[in-house]
Design goal:
The complex is a heterodimer of chains A (about 325) and B (about 240). Helices cover about 35% and strands about 30% of the residues of chain A. Chain A is of the alpha/beta class and about 325 residues long. The relative contact order of chain B is 0.14. Classes of the chains: A alpha/beta (about 325), B mainly alpha (about 240).
Chain lengths: ~325, ~240
């Protein structure tokens, strides 16, 4: 459905996107994951024809977007990072304008009514867009991308600024879209791609550093092997005891004292259940556990792991690694 | 293109922009008309000086119409919607141009009211107005207006600040108009030819004497086309980075 070949975009001397290639099949939901400035938006802007690449090619359903932009763009619905809304229009006027702009062949009234129902904005259709909340504005933006029923939907950071309930609602909306459309969405939130996408492309510094189905992605980087525990007891002795436990790889204490308790982050190897062991050892000493929780995988952890992995395989250029924070 | 045209016309009439343009331009032109005909020291039905003044006033009023054209789209990032839609860039430019031109034509139509007293109540000392001269002048005014609008749209592609776009437009227009007067002062043959070619006002003056000049018509049309083409190039170049 989308084929990206050696896509490169340079701004001055800086490569925003550097020799990126991937193929997306029909019906996939692909998440483009990466920190700010990784090149996600630039990549999306090139796929949609808003920017031209310095080098490389984008084929949308077999059509080159730079050679035949008119027919390629018809197949794409794009929601940029900031939804392109006209604040002085009502929702209906805006959608009607987009309908005309895309020269859409569907019956306007029926088509817009269907889309407004789908993203649940029917009740605000006569309101001015500037008076809508951020969540509603985002939905109007999504409604705009759906007009004309494009085969491909591209969403750039679609959940930024939404409330948690809106994010959940949004995710189910995207899953619903995937039945009829191919979806690419970008995000810098790991949980988001894992919740919605079937496949994850990780970008960093303009390059794709991982391309995996979500299921195997979870296996490779999903286990944190770390948890955080708050123990009441003398810091040094507790730390020594923790270190003596079999399969504990490292213990760090944040040094922040809460009455007589400290918080420790314990890193362990393998899949051994060490929490029971920990409980028994500490109970014997009479040092109670006040709190215990898993440390979730952060995007930074993912990058560290992915880069370590790439390094082992030797398929990534080494010069970039020093820069990753 | 029709979608863009409709949207632009809608914007002119749902924001103060269109009304401000019409109100100010109509008021000032009525004033200028009165002063150059009935209320001049020597009352006349000759409209030549009226149209001459109008050309200079349009260099200030027309940029009001075009200043937001593309700069506002860029500021609010709605250009991403336009440029990722299946429309070609040139049809976007053309849609915006035609909308501004329509506003200008609405102004020209309404300003014809000024001429009514000239025909209805010919002042004692004034002679019968010259119809052919008026038609020629109106045509020239529209041609020059189209040209100014194209230049204004070009300026609005250069910046995302509409005030800056307006200043750039007025700068270019005043420059192109005053080249004529500069040309009267200098005496270098090569420069004189170049300036003569560039001078918007010089071409206009032949119309005010009632001479219909095909070369001038082509000149104005090609200048309009040139700036519309340049506007499209700005986007192509920006896309390439």
């Amino acid at each position: 459905m989308i084929e990206v070949r050696n896509l490169t975009r340079r701004f001055g001397n800086n490569y925003a996107v550097d020799d990126v290639s991937f193929t997306i099949k029909e019906g996939e939901i692909v998440g483009l994951l990466g920190p700010n400035g990784a090149g996600k938006s630039t990549t999306m802007n090139m796929i949609t024809g808003y920017l031209s690449p310095t080098r490389g090619q984008v084929l949308v359903d077999g059509v080159d977007i730079f050679e035949d932009p008119q027919s390629a763009k018809k197949k794409i619905g794009f929601l940029p990072e900031q939804p392109p809304l006209y604040m002085d229009m009502t929702v209906w006027e805006y959608l009607s304008f987009v309908h005309d702009l895309k020269n859409c062949e569907f019956n306007k009234k029926e088509h817009l009514a269907e889309i407004m129902g789908l993203v649940k904005i029917t009740e605000v259709k006569n309101k001015l867009i500037k008076n809508l909340s951020k969540g509603f504005k985002q939905r109007v933006g999504i409604a705009g991308t759906l007009i004309g029923n494009p085969q491909i939907i591209i969403l750039d950071e679609p959940t930024v600024g939404l409330s948690p309930e809106q994010v959940i609602e949004f995710r189910s909306l995207v899953r619903g879209l995937a039945k009829k459309h191919t979806v690419i969405l970008s995000t810098h939130i790991l949980g988001e791609v894992q919740a919605v996408c079937g496949r994850i492309l990780v970008m960093n510094q303009g390059k794709i550093i991982a391309d995996q189905p979500t299921a195997t992605f979870k296996q490779t980087v999903g286990q944190s092997n770390r948890f955080q525990v708050k123990i009441a007891g003398p810091q040094r002795e507790v730390q020594n005891l923790l270190r003596s436990i079999h399969s504990v790889k490292g213990v760090t204490c944040d040094g922040h004292r809460d009455v007589d308790a400290y918080t420790y982050i314990i890193e362990y190897t393998g899949s051994v259940e060490i929490r029971k062991m920990l409980f028994n050892e500490l109970a014997r000493k009479g040092w109670p556990i006040l709190a215990m929780e898993d440390v979730s995988v952060s995007l930074e952890d993912v990058f560290v792991q992915l880069i370590k992995k790439a390094d082992e395989n030797g398929d990534q250029p080494k010069k970039k690694q020093g820069d990753i924070k | 293109m029709i979608a863009i045209y409709k949207k632009e016309m809608r914007t002119y009439f749902t924001t103060p922009l269109g009304y401000v343009f019409l109100a100010v331009a109509l008021f000032v032109s009525a004033f200028a008309f009165a002063l150059t005909t009935y209320y001049s020291s020597d009352p006349t039905s000759n409209t030549t000086s009226y149209f001459t003044i109008m050309i200079f006033l349009m260099a200030i009023f027309l940029p009001i119409l075009t200043m937001r054209s593309f700069s506002e789209e860029r500021r609010t990032k709605t250009d991403q919607l336009l440029f990722t839609s299946p429309l070609s860039i040139f049809s976007l430019v053309l849609g915006k141009f035609l909308a501004s031109l329509s506003m200008f034509l609405i102004y020209v139509l309404i300003s014809l009211i000024n001429l009514i007293p000239l025909y209805a109540n010919v002042a004692a000392s004034a002679s019968q107005p010259n119809g052919a001269l008026i038609v020629g002048n109106l045509m020239a005014l529209i041609l020059v207006g189209a040209c100014f609008i194209a230049i204004g749209i070009f300026a609005s592609t250069l910046t995302e600040n509409s005030a800056v776009a307006m200043v750039i437009t007025i700068g270019i227009l005043i420059g192109l108009l005053f080249i004529y007067f500069i040309n009267l002062l200098i005496n270098v043959p090569v420069l004189e030819t170049i300036f003569e070619w560039l001078s918007i006002y010089g071409r206009f003056s032949s119309f005010t004497y009632g001479v219909f000049d095909i070369a001038s018509l082509i000149y104005y049309l090609s200048l309009t086309g040139l700036f519309l083409f340049l506007s499209e190039r700005v986007f192509q170049v920006r896309r390439l980075g």
